[in-house]
Automatic annotation (TrEMBL):
Gene giving rise to this polypeptide: rnpA
Family that this chain belongs to: Belongs to the RnpA family.
GO cellular component labels: ribonuclease P complex
UniProt-listed NCBIfam families: rnpA
Gene3D superfamilies found in the cross-reference section: 3.30.230.10
Record's protein name: Ribonuclease P protein component
Length: 144
């Protein structure tokens, strides 16, 4: 079962964490209204930081709406992302005709393709670490 939670461990919380991403991003992903900075991290999962300013979005309703849909899109996309820090900022003012969710999902797809989650192949069994009984069982299960 896949875990689609968005807990504290998946957020950038401290100013130093944001600064590290802004100072030396590995990649910048540009959208029409959004700019996303990406940098690898030392954790085993992706983390999200939101830098949505009052200067670009005057109304708190608009700022909170963008934060909410960004967190939701990230929650689904982070399952397939590698260990990266992602910081999203707004480039242009919000307009009602802008499909934010589609743009955010498109950007997260680019990040997933660039930094996929690396999982060990569970089908490969290193034979030197197995006993002879386990090796015989593994050989019986493998199709010829």
């Amino acid at each position: 079962m896949t875990n689609y939670h968005f807990g504290k461990s998946q957020r950038l919380l401290k100013p130093d964490e944001f600064r590290q991403v802004f100072d030396a991003p590995l990649k910048k992903v540009h959208g029409e209204h959004l700019l996303v900075f990406v940098q690898k991290n030392n954790t085993s999962h992706a983390r999200l930081g939101l830098a949505i300013t009052k200067k670009k979005l005057k109304r708190a309703v608009d700022r909170n709406y963008i934060k909410r849909i960004t967190r939701e899109a990230f929650r689904h996309a982070s399952v397939e992302m590698g260990a990266v820090d992602v910081v999203l900022i707004i480039k242009k003012n919000y307009t009602k005709d802008w499909d934010m969710y589609a743009e955010i999902v498109k950007i997260f797809e680019k990040i997933k393709n660039s930094y996929p989650k690396t999982t060990p192949n569970k089908n490969l069994i290193p034979s030197e670490n197995l006993t002879t009984n386990q090796q015989n069982n593994a050989q019986e299960r493998t199709p010829c």
